[in-house]
Amino acid sequence: MAETKNNNGLKVLAGLLGVILLATIIYTVSLYQEKKKNEAVLTQEKELVVADLESLKSEYDKAIIESNKTNEELVAARDNIAKYIDSVNAMKADLATLSRYRRQVSVLKKEREELLRQVDSLKQSNTMIAMQRDSTFVELEKQTVFNDSLIVQNTQLAEAVERGSALNLTQFNVDAVRERSNGTLRSTARARRTDKLKICFTVADNVIAEAGDREFYIEVLDPQGNVMGGTNTKTIEDGPTISYTKNTNFYYENAALDVCDYISNYAGEFQQGNYMVNVYDDALRLLGTSRFELK
Fold first, then answer.
1. In this structure, are residues 188 and 178 in contact, taking their beta carbons and an 8 Å threshold?
2. pLDDT 10s digits, 169-222
3. Are strands 246-252 and 241-244 parallel, antiparallel or unpaired?
4. Which of 40, 203, 267, 272 could form a disulfide with 191 if both were Cys (CB 3.0 to 4.6 A apart)?
5. Strand (E) positions, the chain?
């Protein structure tokens, strides 16, 4: 009877131990499954944090490319995010750390919005400056064209005034004369009777010419084509040079003026043949030519 009771007690104890073991196994499995579930959730959260950081970095990369020049603040922010990505990838996921990085992502998003706003404002400002600069260049080009046009017009006007103010001859006469003993002069066509050449010309009136002392140059060519008294020369800078027989001076007051001068034959008697007389102004511009013959 006692033996039966002992056997029953052992059976009860064995049953209790079995129940406890089963409960332990179930609890252990439950803990393991909970751990795996938590690890999966943490891994997913970690991936979401990395994805958010990658998205922020990508937006910074795009903003840096779109800006025409390197923005140091954008580059620094992007590099800082790259460091966060490396840290999250390397860390062992836990709830506290992930929460901290989640908060940091929110801060970085706000910082990105502010930086991009500043970049947009700077781009708009640069665009406005570029438009103003282009507008200024256009105006400068217009002004340059206008100034060039004025210069051309002024040059043409100056040339016109210079041409208009140049003196001209209305009459030009050359007469071979013989001087009598009483000092009077008489025209002649004979070379051996000629003592002088009387050269007269009339300077036309010109209201825009400058009044004052003027100097004309008389060039007499003998029958051989030599300049009589041709040791005198006159040169205009960057202009022509002439040999002349005599220079004649007069005072011009814008009204028509008769001028006469006399040329003697410094070499002796005048030769027979054809002569030519030229008159030049002080700019060595040929004003008139006359030809005559001495027999």
1. yes
2. 889 999 999 888 787 888 898 988 888 899 999 999 988 888 889 999 999 989
3. unpaired
4. 272
5. 169-179, 185-187, 196-203, 212-221, 232-235, 241-244, 246-252, 257-264, 273-280, 286-294
